Amino acid sequence: MKTSLGAHTFALPTPVWVVGSYGENGEPNIMAAAWGGICCSSPPSLGVSLQKSRASYGNILRTKSFTISIPSQKHVVETDYVGIVSGKDNDKFSVTGLTPVRSEVVNAPYVEEFPLILECRLTHLFEIGVHTQFIGEIVDVKADEDVLGENGLPILAKVNSFTYSTTERAYYGSGEYLGQSHSVGLKLK
C-alpha cells in the first residue's frame, strides 16, 4: 500500500548542475541548481528553474545566455558552497579555487575543472510560481577527453557526476550500471 505525501518536489533524484552567468560588471558567477533537465531533443534544449532573488536570474535575463557545468563527485564541497552563498555578495570562484572560462559561443562562463559543459542560448522563460524556468538551446557541449568513450561521447561513470535527493537534502554518487536502455526491456517482448 502506498502512503499519500501530498504535493512536493519529490522527483528523485534531481541533477546537480552549476549555472554560469556574467554579472552586470562582467564578473563571472556560478550557482548550484537542482531544478533542471533536458526538455527537447530538436533543437537540443534544457530547462533550469531559478528564483528571482538569485543573482543568476538577472544575469541570464540580461545576457540571454548561460552555461551548465556538470561537476564530478570530487567537487561536491565546492558545488555545495556555490549553492549556499549568493553571487551578489561573494566571489565564488575565488573562494572555491575553481577557474572561470569564457565561453566562445555564448556570453557566459563555465567551470574549467568540471568534466562536462553545456553552453546555452536563452530561448524561452516561463513564470511558474516562486521559480522561473529558463529554457536554453544547447549550442555546444564541451567534455574533458578522459570522460569520453570509444564513440567519442561522455560516459556517465567517467563523468562521475552526482545527484540531489530533495527529501533528504543530500547528495548521492552516480549509480551502478544496470543495463543498456532500449535493450534490457526486450526480454519482455
From TrEMBL:
A Pfam family recorded for this sequence: Flavin_Reduct
Occurrences of domain Flavin reductase like (ranges): 10-164
Protein's UniProt keywords contain Ribosomal protein: no
Keywords of this entry: Flavoprotein
Superkingdom, natural source: Bacteria
InterPro entries, sorted: Flavin_Rdtase-like_dom (IPR002563), Flavoredoxin (IPR052174), Split_barrel_FMN-bd (IPR012349)
UniProt GO molecular function: FMN binding; oxidoreductase activity, acting on the CH-NH group of donors, NAD or NADP as acceptor
Cofactor(s), names only, from the UniProt record: FMN
Annotated Gene3D superfamilies: Electron Transport, Fmn-binding Protein, Chain A
Family: Belongs to the flavoredoxin family.
Protein name in UniProt: Flavoredoxin
Species name: Methylomusa anaerophila
